[in-house]
Design brief:
The complex is a heterotrimer of chains A (about 120), B (about 375) and C (about 170).
Chain A (H helix, E strand, L loop, with lengths): L4 H24 L29 H34 L2 H22 L8
Chain B lengths: L8 H38 L31 H11 L10 H18 L8 E2 L2 E2 L8 H11 L1 H10 L3 H32 L4 H11 L13 H24 L11 H4 L9 H26 L25 H27 L7 H29 L2
Antiparallel strand pairs in B: 1-2
Chain C lengths: L2 H20 L3 H21 L3 H26 L11 H24 L17 H11 L2 H21 L1 H4 L1
Helix pairs in contact in C: 1-2, 2-3
The chains are: A mainly alpha (about 120), B mainly alpha (about 375), C mainly alpha (about 170).
Chain lengths: ~120, ~375, ~170
C-alpha cells in the first residue's frame, strides 16, 4: 500500500502546477476591456446563430455503449494474460480454450453489431 | 500498520517527491517545450522552409554583452519566449461560457497526463533508489485507467465553451478516444501474455533477462519460440502505436481539432495560459505514450552490454566504473529512446493527411480491433502449443 | 491504510456522492460522481485490492460516466429549476433514510462473520491481478463464461434499441 502514496503526491504536484500556472497568468496578463463582439461565440466572424449545442448523431451514443461492453471483455483478459504461462505449465492448455470460448461468445455480438450497421458511419 | 507515522515515511515521501520534481519539471516539461520547437523545425525541414531560427537568449540585456546568445542551429530560445508569451497574454474569458468548468477543463486535460508518468520506470537504480515514482504491480492498468479519465478535460472544454465548434470537437474527440482505447488495451495483452505481469518494472526486468520484446536478439541467440513470438509482437507494436496516435489526437487522427472544419476544435474559445495547458497536456500525453511504448516493446531503460544502476549484468570489464554512472546512463538511454519516438510522431504528422471521420471509426472498430483480437490468440496459441 | 488517509478519501467519496444529488446542473452531477468513484478507488487501494481499484477507475470513471455525459449532452438536459421545498416529501424521504439505516444497523449486528478479524496477508506485496486470474480460471470458470453470455445479450440489446435510428 505504501507504494501508492507517491501517486497521491504526484496528483498534488499536478494540481499545484496547474493552479499556479493559471494564477500567474491571471496576475501577469490582465484582462482588457470587453465588448459585445468579443464576448460572443466564435463563428468565423459571423454573428452566432442558433443554439450553442447542436444535436448530434445517436451513433456517438451507440459507440459509447459498445465501448463499455467490450471494455469489460478486455478487463477480463488482463488477469487471464498474467496467469497464462504459469497456468499452462501447471494445468495444461485448458485456460486457452476457456478464454477462446469467452471471446467467441462476445464475437457473436460484435459480428451482429457489424451486420446491423451499428459501426457503419458512412450513412 | 499506520504508514503515515512509520519510520520510513519521510524517506519515502522525500525521495518520491524528489523523483516527481525531477521527472516533471526537469525532464518532461523541458522535453515538451523542445518537442514543440523540434516540431516546428522538422516541419519546416519537411516543407522546405527554415522555421524559427532567430530567437536566442537575450544576453544583450545584461550590460557588457553586445550580442544575444544564439547557439547551434539558432532559435533555441524559442520555447522560453513562447512560455513567457503565454504567461503575459491577456487572460480573457469570453462572456458566454460556463465560467467554473471553463477554468476547470484545461487543468483536467493536463493533470491525467502528468499523473500517468508516476508509474513509468524511467531508469534502473540511482544511488540505491529505484528510478520510478510509484513501483506498483498494476502499472500498465494504472496508465490506461488514468488516461481514460483525460477524456473529461476535452469533453468539458467543448461543453463549457457554449459554442458550436468546441462542442463538435469535444464530442468527436471523446468518441475517438474511447474507440481507440479498446484497441490500445487489446494490443497490450500479448505483452502481458509473454511477460506475465502488469507491473511495468517487471515487464522491463523480463526484457532485460530475455531480450527486448521487439528485438529479442539483444539477449544473444534466438530459439524457435522467440522467432515465432516475434510475429505477433510486431503486430501488437504496430497496432499499439497507431492507437497511441489516435489517443493523443495527433495527425492523422487530429479530427477533434481539424482546423479546416472545426477552426481549432475543443479549444477554439481558449487563449493564454489556459490554451497552453491544453497544449502541455497533449504533448505530455505524447511523451507518456512514447514512454509506455518504450517500456512495453523497446526494453525500457536497458541497453545491451551496459550494466544497470546496481552494477548488475552487462559486460564484465564495465563493472570497474562506479555503478551510479550506469544509473545515469540508463536514465539517458530511456529518454533517448523516448525522443526518437517523439521524432517519429512529428515525422508522421507532417507526412500523412488527415482521415475522414467514418474512415477513422472503420479503422478503429473494424480493422484494428479484429487484428488485435486475433493477435492475442495467436500469441496465446504460440505460448500454449510450442516448447 | 492510515486512518487520516482513510477519512480523507471516505469524506471525498461521501461529499461528492451527496453533490451528485444536490447539484442542479446534470453535468456537475456527473462529474461529482466521477470524483466520488476516484475516492472509492483510493479506498480499494487501502484494502490492498489494487486490481479492483484500477478497474473501478477504468470502467466506471473512464467508460460508464463518459456514456452518462454523452446522454446528458445528447438530450441537452438543462439545469433543474429551483423549486419550493415540499415539507411532507422531504420528511417522508428522511423517514425512509432513517428506516433504511436502522435496518442496515440491525442486520450488521447479527452478522457474525464481520466480527472475526482477518489474518494479515502473508506476503506484503500481493500480486492481486494474479490472484484474480487464478481464481477466475480454476474455481470460477463457469460464472466467467456466463458473464460472456450476459455481455452478448447486452450487446444485442444495445443494437436493437438503437436500431430505429439506424434504419
Amino acid at each position: 500500500m505504501s507504494e501508492y502514496f507517491p501517486i497521491f503526491l504526484q496528483v498534488v504536484v499536478a494540481i499545484g502546477f496547474a493552479a499556479s500556472a493559471l494564477l500567474v497568468s491571471v496576475v501577469l496578463g490582465k484582462a482588457a476591456k470587453t465588448n459585445k463582439a468579443k464576448d460572443s461565440a466564435y463563428e468565423c466572424g459571423m454573428p452566432a446563430e442558433g443554439g450553442a449545442q447542436p444535436r448530434f448523431s445517436v451513433k456517438f451514443y451507440l459507440v459509447a455503449m459498445l465501448f463499455i461492453l467490450f471494455d469489460i471483455e478486455i478487463v477480463f483478459m488482463y488477469p487471464w494474460a498474467v496467469v497464462f504461462r504459469e497456468h499452462i505449465a501447471a494445468h495444461g492448455p485448458g485456460i486457452f480454450w476457456s478464454m477462446l470460448s469467452f471471446a467467441g461468445v462476445l464475437t457473436v455480438g460484435y459480428v451482429y453489431a457489424i451486420m446491423k450497421g451499428a459501426l457503419d458511419w458512412k450513412s | 500498520m499506520d504508514f503515515l507515522t512509520s519510520s520510513d515515511f519521510w524517506f519515502l515521501s522525500l525521495t518520491s517527491l524528489a523523483k516527481t520534481i525531477f521527472l516533471i519539471f526537469l525532464v518532461v516539461l523541458p522535453m515538451v517545450s523542445y518537442t514543440v520547437y523540434a516540431e516546428r523545425r522538422v516541419s519546416a525541414l519537411i516543407q522546405d522552409r527554415v522555421g524559427p531560427n532567430r530567437t536566442g537568449f537575450p544576453t544583450s540585456l545584461i550590460p557588457g554583452f553586445t550580442k544575444d546568445f544564439s547557439p547551434f542551429l539558432g532559435g533555441l530560445g524559442q520555447p522560453v519566449a513562447d512560455a513567457v508569451k503565454f504567461l503575459l497574454k491577456e487572460d480573457f474569458v469570453p462572456g458566454h461560457v460556463n465560467k467554473l468548468y471553463f477554468w476547470l477543463a484545461p487543468c483536467l486535460a493536463m493533470m491525467p497526463a502528468i499523473v500517468t508518468l508516476a508509474a513509468i520506470p524511467f531508469g534502473s537504480e540511482f544511488l540505491g533508489v529505484k528510478m520510478v515514482v510509484a513501483d506498483i504491480n498494476v502499472g500498465l492498468l494504472f496508465m490506461f485507467a488514468i488516461s481514460s479519465v483525460s477524456v473529461y478535460g476535452i469533453v468539458l472544454a467543448g461543453w463549457s465553451s457554449n459554442s458550436k465548434y468546441p462542442f463538435l470537437g469535444g464530442i468527436r474527440s471523446t468518441s475517438q478516444m474511447i474507440s481507440y482505447e479498446l484497441c490500445m488495451g487489446l494490443s497490450a495483452v500479448p505483452v502481458l501474455l509473454v511477460c506475465g505481469s502488469t507491473g511495468l518494472s517487471s515487464i522491463v526486468n523480463y526484457q532485460v533477462r530475455e531480450g527486448w520484446l521487439l528485438a529479442p536478439f539483444t539477449n544473444g541467440g534466438l530459439s524457435f519460440r522467440e522467432i515465432a513470438l516475434w510475429v505477433p509482437i510486431i503486430i501488437a507494436f504496430i497496432t499499439f502505436t497507431i492507437s497511441m496516435f489516435a489517443e493523443t489526437n495527433r495527425l492523422p487522427f487530429d479530427l477533434p481539432e481539424s482546423e479546416t472544419e472545426l477552426v481549432a476544435g475543443y479549444h477554439t474559445e481558449y487563449s493564454s495560459m489556459k490554451f497552453a495547458l491544453f497544449f502541455l497536456g497533449e504533448y505530455t500525453a505524447m511523451i507518456a505514450g512514447s514512454a509506455l511504448i518504450v517500456v512495453l516493446f523497446l526494453g525500457g531503460w536497458h541497453l545491451p552490454f551496459i550494466p544497470d544502476g546496481a552494477g548488475q549484468g552487462g559486460l564484465n570489464f564495465l563493472h570497474a566504473i562506479p555503478s551510479w554512472i550506469w544509473g545515469l546512463v540508463n536514465i539517458t538511454a530511456f529518454f533517448a529512446k523516448v525522443a526518437v519516438l517523439l521524432l517519429v510522431f512529428i515525422w508522421i504528422r507532417w507526412t500523412l493527411p488527415r482521415f475522414r471521420y467514418d474512415q477513422l471509426m472503420k479503422l478503429g472498430w473494424l480493422y484494428l480491433f479484429e487484428i488485435a483480437l486475433v493477435n492475442i490468440f495467436l500469441t496465446a496459441g504460440i505460448l500454449a502449443f510450442t516448447k | 491504510m492510515s486512518p487520516i488517509l482513510f477519512y480523507l478519501f471516505a469524506a471525498m467519496t461521501l461529499v461528492f456522492a451527496v453533490a451528485v444529488v444536490a447539484n442542479r446542473n446534470p453535468v456537475a452531477s456527473a462529474l461529482s460522481l466521477v470524483v466520488s468513484f476516484l475516492g472509492l478507488a483510493a479506498l480499494f487501494v487501502g484494502l490492498d485490492a489494487y486490481f479492483i481499484a484500477v478497474i473501478q477507475v477504468l470502467v466506471y470513471a473512464g467508460a460508464v460516466m463518459v456514456l452518462f455525459l454523452f446522454i446528458i449532452m445528447l438530450l441537452n438536459i438543462q439545469a433543474e429549476e429551483r423549486r419550493k421545498i415540499n415539507v411532507p416529501a422531504y420528511a417522508a424521504g428522511g423517514l425512509v433514510t432513517v428506516a433504511f439505516i436502522a435496518q442496515l444497523w440491525f442486520v450488521l449486528q447479527k452478522f457474525e462473520l464481520g466480527k472475526t478479524a482477518f489474518a494479515p496477508l502473508a506476503e506484503k506485496h500481493v500480486d492481486d491481478v494474479r490472484n484474480v486470474g487464478n481464481t477466475l480460471f480454476s474455481t470460477h470458470n463457469l460464472p466467467f463464461q456466463v458473464i460472456g453470455v450476459l455481455i452478448l445479450v447486452a450487446t444485442i440489446g444495445v443494437v436493437v434499441l438503437s436500431k430505429r435510428e439506424l434504419k
